[in-house]
Amino acid sequence: MKILIMGVDGYIGFPLALRLLNRGHEVYGIDNFITRKRVANVNSDSALPILSFKERNARIKKYFGRNVKFFYGDATNPEFMYRAIEKSRPDAIVHLAEQRSAPYSMIGLKEANETMVKNITSTMNLIYAVKDIVPKAHILKLGTMGEYGTPNIDIPEGFFEIEYHGRKDMLPFPKNASSWYHWTKVHDSNNLMFANRLWNLAITDVMQGVVYGTKTKEIADTGLYTRFDIDEVYGTALNRFTAEAILGMPMTVYGKGGQTRGFLSLNDSIQCLTLALEKPPESGEYRVINQFDEKYSVGQLAEMVQDIFKREYGIVPDIGHVENPRVEREEHYYNPEHRKLEELGYRRTKNIEEEVIDAISDLSKFRERLNSLKETLMPRTFWRRSSYDYT
User: Fold this and answer.
1) Which DSSP string do the residues of 83-136 spell out, in sequence order?
2) Is this structure's pTM higher than 0.85?
């Protein structure tokens, strides 16, 4: 199968490319390396060292005998997107080429507008390029469980049956996002659902939980790390807690710590995306998958990291509750469904504690690098306050 990955240089895009190459697929990639620039603009960097994409691709060829056929360019440029789709003519396209940070989108007006325009435009360019050039291709868009918010009822996979005034219908589950970034993902879902209705495009809309960890089989085999962000803008809770514990810092739990989300290891995220590509939807089907493994509160994650360090290393990291920079419920009901992945054949590879131990091992090799990022860990981007000036 020919598969085009938009955002191939990223945390998920790069290991996904390795997995697909390892499974014999022909892999094309798009990137303009904007995440590297955005992370640098908030005075941070990947906690694990990563090579330039040119160097990565040369190393890939040594291991797999072929590499990623790469297009450098911006997915928000329609001429570029049409050209890349025309040259690659993929069977499937994975859309990861968006500004991926909720805090970044909340820094101020400039970042909010950038997130809105770039994310929504890239998806529209993809929709039209596929419709005009490869209408039978499968679009897999990486969304987020954050599109749903935290409703006081169970969360289905995309759609639910509702009865109102004696009449029933099957409708999209209401979305209630909590940042400008998350709202762009909602708009993406709506636009893809409408494109499916207009042109019968085959679409998988993945509502992914929070991803953590450093390892996939291919990363272990090749020694080629994917990027790993721990700062308050681009890092996620469990990855940040792991780095803070290694540095002997209190783990920064926002507010009460009762915020509950679905979590998934990097390795299992790649497994799930690969399954969704190799077992595509029917022609003309719009398919929604809730992609996570288990749900935890951020307080539970901090306690888990604390227990691992105590058991494995004889160290007891502190848990520090800091002012919550976000506007969110800190205690709430949370029970999303996730049956479709198991129906596709998903099985968890390692439990969360094993993944954290692997991450500790990887990150501990670069303690000096972690130490240089200490100042980026505490929250500085507050949802209700004026813009923070990073310059």
Assistant:
1) HHHHHH--SEEEE--S---HHHHTS-HHHHHHHHHHHHHHHHHHHHHHHHH-TT
2) yes
Can you spell out the DSSP letters for 216-236?
-HHHHHH--PPP---STTT--
Contacts of 161 (CB under 8 A, 6+ apart): 168, 169, 170, 171
Structure tokens at 201: 């495009």
Residues 128-160 have pLDDT tens digits of 999 999 999 999 999 999 999 999 999 999 999
CA angle 361, 226, 113 (to 5 degrees): 125
Stretch 49-70: mean pLDDT, rounded? 97
Where do the domains of the chain lie? 2-376
Q: 88-121: b or e for each residue (b if 16 or more CB lie within 10 Å)?
A: bebbbbbbbbbbbbbbbbbbeeebbebbbebbbb
For the chain, how are helix, strand and coil distributed in percent, rounded to 5?
Answer: 40, 20, 40
Q: Give the right CATH number for 2-376 from 3.30.160.620, 3.40.30.10, 3.40.50.12780, 3.40.50.720.
A: 3.40.50.720
Position 385 scores a pLDDT of 84
The closest of 21, 26, 24, 39 to 11, measured between CA atoms, is: 39
Strands 159-164 vs 167-172: parallel, antiparallel or unpaired: antiparallel
| pLDDT, position 391 | 53
The tens digit of pLDDT for each residue in 243-269 reads: 999 999 999 999 999 999 999 999 999
Cα–Cα distances (Å) from 120 to 75, 86, 329, in that order, read 10, 21, 27
The residue type found at 230 is I
CB 280 within 8 A of CB 204: yes
Confidence of residue 37 (pLDDT cuts 50, 70, 90): very high
User: What are the Cα distances from residue 266, in Å, to 114, 169, 217, 295?
Assistant: 27, 37, 10, 15
At residue 188, what are phi and psi to the nearest 5 degrees?
A: -55, -45
Are β-strands 26-31 and 2-6 bridged in parallel, bridged antiparallel, or unpaired?
parallel
Catalytically active residues are 144, 181, 185
The string of pLDDT tens digits covering residues 373-382 is 999 999 999 9
H/E stretch holding 199 reads helix 180-199
Give yes or no for a contact between 198 and 245, defined as CB atoms under 8 angstroms apart: no
Q: Position 298: which residue type? A: V
Sheet with 294-297, side-by-side order of all strands:
210-212, 260-265, 294-297
Asked if 29 contacts 68 with a C-beta cutoff of 8 angstroms, the reply is: yes
